[in-house]
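Dear colleagues,

As part of the handover before I leave the project, I'm documenting each prediction I ran so the next person doesn't have to rerun anything. This entry is a single chain, and its sequence is reproduced below.
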Amino acid sequence: MHRTTLALLYGGMLLLVPGFAACSRSDQQTADVSTSNRASSASPGAPQVAGQTSPDVVRASAAAVSIRAGSSVEAAVELAITNGYHINANPATYPYLIPTKLDIAPEPGIKAGAPVYPTPLTKKFSFDEKPLAVYEGVARIKLPLDVEQSTAKGARTLRAHIRVQPCNDQACFPPRTIEAVIPLTID
């Protein structure tokens, strides 16, 4: 009798868990997760692929940029997302979703402005009633750069850190931070 009651209570509790938690985060999981993610960093309540950590389905790259000292230029970081996967847009549809986020490591004499995220796709997934704003395929994040007049000429490297959480239509994987290098030449 007790086993039956416990099974019914447990089953009822599972029905109360919202399906849209597939790509969510708790307030304690807002810190960046490095590329050495562990399965325990996954979104709470998210369906998980047994025994897997975050798959390498998002690649980042950037084209070389040339600029004169004392001027501005727009760089771009391109995200290539493997077919069948998506990442949340920035801003994400819900506050508890993990948005794609670009950060640039400081470089003397160069100021990075606020990233301009691409227009997202709006796509319906089985785990939520409402369509979500996501990126699939190729997503290009624009990045305004200002170079101080006093900055010495020559080659520089800007390091970009992009936080993403890859998901497919059934499960989300632990968030990860991927890196890209933006080659910059100051004339």
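Confidence is low (pLDDT under 50) at residues 1-22, 24-51. The domain at 22-186 is CATH 2.60.40.10 (Immunoglobulin-like).

All the best with the project,
I.
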